[in-house]
Amino acid sequence: MRGVQGAADRAVALAKDALTREKPGSFFHDVQGDPRFQHRGVDLLWQHPDGSVHGVEVKGDRQGFRRGTYFFELVSNAEKNSPGCFLYSLADYYVYVFVDARQVHALKLKAVREWFVPRAKQYKLKTTKTRTGAILYTTVGAIVPIRDVREAVPEAVQVFTPSEAPSAPPV
To answer: Which H or E run includes 97?
Structure first.
């Protein structure tokens, strides 16, 4: 659990840092532990300097950067048949963080989801197992090349790479 939670915490910290640099003067309300936002698939509320507030779902990935792919979560817990946050989240932004590469991709969720859903069957599905204490559960997601998303909905993807991070994968 510590490894999974540690990666999730690093992903949130990197997302906050990148988005704050994008909108100086903005700040975050962390609502990860708030049940009113958990079922909406929102981890952070990002308040811009103009007062507008945007929901953010953060996903950390320790593997996808070197493959040049996103893992769009379609089933959160297969044992409980619960939908994945990529499909149900009400967030404005799906912030995908390649933790080890320290690269943050801010995806406008509605636009990316509208593009993805009609062509979902074109993408390979993959399962991952996660252990939280004594409980082991299975997550199912689509493996989607970053290049496909950036080419199909370029206005919906912003990439933030700190200067010390590795270069971006080929697109």
So the answer is: strand 93-98
Beta bridge pairs of residue 97: 60, 104
Cα-Cα-Cα-Cα dihedral sign, residues 147, 116, 62, 160: positive
With b for 16 or more beta-carbon neighbours within 10 A and e for fewer, the 131-151 pattern comes to eeeeeebebbbbebbbebbee
Q: How far apart are CA 105 and CA 150, in angstroms?
A: 10
Distance of alpha carbon 145 from alpha carbon 78, whole angstroms: 23
What's the whole-model pTM score? 0.88
pLDDT tens column, 23-72: 999 999 999 999 999 989 999 999 999 999 999 999 999 887 889 999 99
Please tell me the distance from the alpha carbon of residue 146 to that of residue 93, in angstroms, as a whole number.
16
Select from 78, 69, 137 the least CA-distant residue to 98: 69
Question: How far is it between the farthest Cα atoms of the chain?
Answer: 45
- Tell me the residue type at 33: G
- DSSP H or E stretch at residue 128: strand 125-132
CB 72 within 8 A of CB 148: no
